[in-house]
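Reopening this ticket.

The earlier resolution said the output was attached, but the attachment link was broken on my side. Pasting everything inline this time so it's all in one place.
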Amino acid sequence: MTDDRTGELYDRVLIREVLLKQSHYLDAARMDLMREVWAEDCRTDFGPDRGGVLVGLDAFLERIGPGLKAFNWTFHLLGESVIDLDGDKAFAVTSVLAWHEFTSGERSWVGSTYHDELTRIDGRWLIWSRKTVVSGVDGPLAAVAWLSLERNVDPLQHSASRSARLAGLHDKSR
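Inline output:
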């Protein structure tokens, strides 16, 4: 017999696994596997120079897939995740340290935070929205217009209004 706390713990494990798989698929350039972890109607925002706000999984894949060709290798290391559950929705804030080696041999480090909203569809957790907020960049990627870390705000606040303001991606019809 399981209680609500056991179910919540299991959901947290499943959500963390989705986040980890997404990074592994990205680093392996396996765009064909992204459908396992992203919702079809997803929203992403990686910053103005990284495609801005994109709506739909196909738009995301069309942006990110060809962009990976600029790199020999990438490596996205996920740090801690703070996950708030709300029924079939979840909000996660995850620290990320990403290493990129360009085809030219130049290298960049990017320290960022993923602000994700996940949704459970047919019993599976999927990433529905992601906003990448950068706190530091070293190397050639420093020239990119990223979304910058906000100071003097609670970075873990996950209310619907905070999610809408932070991500600019919240669809009120969901």
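Reporter confirms the inline version is readable. The beta strands are 38-45, 53-55, 71-86, 89-102, 107-121, 124-138. The longest strand covers residues 71-86.
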